[in-house]
Write a structure and sequence with these properties.
Layout (H helix, E strand, L loop, with lengths): L2 E3 L5 E3 L1 H28 L4 E4 L8 E6 L5 H10 L5 E4 L1 H7 L4 H4 L17 E7 L8 H20 L6 H7 E11 L11 H11 L5 E6 L11 H11 L3 E3 H8 L1
């Protein structure tokens, strides 16, 4: 580190030293934000995850799927407002026999070329067979928890669970959208689907995570990162940048 001395004899820190100190502080803050996020996930609590300004530019409320209950569903629909989806890892989706939704539909409206990525991760929307309409907080929580349980079963015994088992538990169409994680995880795609699944993997949870986009009540647009971070601070929910998760978990 180089320091200059001014006319009064005081040391002046060189600009490159200041830059290095700032970079080190930012790296420390990022690492700590990941630790807080994983600690919350481990406890079954939500995390606010912002992906990237040059991607969707959205913050999602993310839960480990196995920890979701009626209160969590109400939290997401009231405080986030986007779609409540369950991301499952690629091997789990394969065992379930779940296609990408765009591949399963034969209709001229199908156009899976979003501006933010190569393709969407949407698969089938489902309800658990023991739900009624599937849309209530109770019904969606049941579907989500059962999806997490099925994902855990596949993780424990990949050959012991197949599409017929999935069909015996779930029906489509339904009210919980299932998302297929990229086969290469964060190495292939860095959406909220993969970010949530990476956190689940990091804590040894079932390979299933719930994601729901945060929307701005006044504008109807995606909630600005600064506003999402302020919300997270008020609610004592960890807020983490996608870049920090990728750096720590990829």
């Amino acid at each position: 580190m180089r320091a200059d001395v001014d006319a009064d004899g005081d040391a002046e820190v060189a600009p490159e030293a200041e830059a290095g100190t700032t970079a080190d502080a930012e790296a420390t803050d990022a690492a700590e934000s990941v630790e807080r996020a994983l600690a919350a996930f481990r406890a079954g609590d939500p995390v606010c995850v912002h992906d990237f300004a040059d991607r969707e530019g959205e913050t999602d409320i993310v839960y480990p799927a196995g920890a979701v209950d009626e209160a969590a569903v109400a939290h997401m629909r009231n405080d986030a407002g986007g779609l409540i989806c369950v991301a499952v890892a690629d091997p789990v989706a394969n065992a379930f026999g779940l296609p990408f939704l765009a591949d399963a539909l034969d209709h001229p409206a199908v156009d899976d070329d979003p501006d933010y990525d190569d393709r969407s991760s949407f698969s089938l929307p489902v309800n658990h067979r023991e739900t009624f309409t599937g849309i209530t907080d109770e019904d969606r929580a049941r579907t989500i928890v059962e999806l997490a349980g099925a994902a855990a079963d596949v993780d424990a015994d990949p050959a012991g669970y197949g599409p017929e088992d999935f069909a015996a538990e779930f029906r489509a169409p339904g009210h919980v959208h299932v998302l297929r994680g990229d086969r290469d995880g964060l190495g292939g795609r860095t959406g909220h689907t993969e970010l949530g699944l990476a956190m689940a993997e990091a804590i040894g949870a079932a390979p299933a995570a719930v994601v729901c986009e945060m929307l701005d009540d006044e504008t109807g647009a995606a909630l600005a990162p600064a506003d999402a971070e302020a919300y997270a601070r008020r609610r004592q929910i960890p807020y983490v940048e996608g870049a920090a998760l990728v750096e720590a978990l990829k």
